[in-house]
User: Fold this.
Amino acid sequence: MTEAGLAAVMNSYNELDGVPCAADRWLLTELLRDQLGFDGIVVSDYDAVDMLRTIYHTASSEGQAAVQAISAGLDVELPGDVNFSHLADEVTGGHLDEGVLDTAVTRVLTVKARVGLIPGMAARSAAGAPPDRAEAAEVRRAIAARGLVLLANDGTLPLTPRGGRVVVVGPAADELRVHFGAYTSVANAEMPLGMTAVMTGQVPGVDPATFMFTDIFQPRMPGFDERFEAEARRIHPDAPTALDALRGFDPTVAFVPLGHFEADPGPVLDQAAVTAAVAGADVVIALVGERTGWVGNNTAGEGRSTASPGLPGDQDELVALLAATGKPLVTVVVSGRPLLLDTVARASRAVLLAPLLGEEAGPAIAGAVFGTINPSGKLPSTFPRHLGQIPTYHGHHFGSGYDHPTGTRHGYNDLDDDTPRYAFGHGLSYSTFDVTLDESAEPAVEESDGLLRARLLVANTGTVDGETVVQLYARDEAATVVRPVRQLLGFTRLALAAGETRRVLLEAPVERLFYTMADGARGLEAGDVTVLAALSSDDIRCSRTVPLSARRA
Assistant:
């Protein structure tokens, strides 16, 4: 936190051990400020202070809610001052020490002064030049290209334009909105439409008289899909859908509208209809996924939890029926979170993840499918094989989880493989890469001046130029507090020409291995630490064990 130089932190909505985070002094003051050294302002998530009254019932009035929050270390109530407007009365009534209020005000004014919002206290920075739209577009394209993750490929990808008849299916094929998540231009434009619908009684199950801001996220909005899609296209008129972008490479690409995001949208899929739809195809591309956002018929996004994180509607069934036709199947999954993709993985020759890439999603997907983009993205989370494996993550403790590098543990007796479907850090390429320790000069792995250093040789062993992300993990081999089987310490992205080898130095502060010891102090006990260089958390290419001395924060 101090390394990042954060100026503002927002509380979460949940409670810890019965104390709502918006009113948790241990969390917002003792941990955040006293231990972690944060010196900025803490602001509430929308309506979090009000929830102390309306949801958690730790306060019976607006004033009590305000006192609980500000006493915990929360400085600003958002989006309004429904509760904090009572703070003066609480001070006058003897329920709040005025010094607590002064502290919060000082923090707010300090941050405002830093950014030039208080005349005479700090110079306002001169207005910069207007943004360069061409440069911004180039950055967007680069992010989208590097954000794609090739999850699986048996050599079917990349395709050759006009190399055979391509048939595209799936509900994500010709929709633009699906590529935008919450906190985007599209979600921001949809919010007033949704709010108006709620407040005018157009949304079933929501009473405008008792409406709270957070009520906007859950209800379905029948009949709004076309309005929201039209809004997305209005905001981004030059952004093609994935179908449009694929046709930009090959105008002969055909489209059959099969599959739905919702469970009960219309006709039931059947094998005969699916087989007939793709009868003339040399390869089938299924674009599936889920809608992510704030309002409307989403299955993911803020306030959109699901009991089973799978493909919604009939999309799993669609993929299975397509596989049964015997046609080579490429599946593109549009999602910003881990999903259960067992059916997709078993049915598809290649699987490409497009994680909410916005207006550049279509061109990025088409570029990867036809080979003008060589995928290089890596997963920032773990994709399980089965719902029962959740929670699953690469940094689980010794004695739990799926990976046991120094011993055997019992797994699930109804799974042939206890590992994730796609592990943290996973991501393939049209190139192949290797990572080895560089033993040519200094020690390949060492600790010096508080830094763990790994000297590596990274090679593109394929026949095409490409990029990869080399990852550095570490494992504390013994400690009095159970440690993870691996921790990510650092990573770097490299672009390598076919056949090229490059020396790489990866380093990370030893403090990243610190943990909370039995006495409450943070630090590291003396002992061996194994440093691992990898292309993913389940693709460790080389390692070296080094001794580290004890140290404390």
Notes: The mean pLDDT is 94.
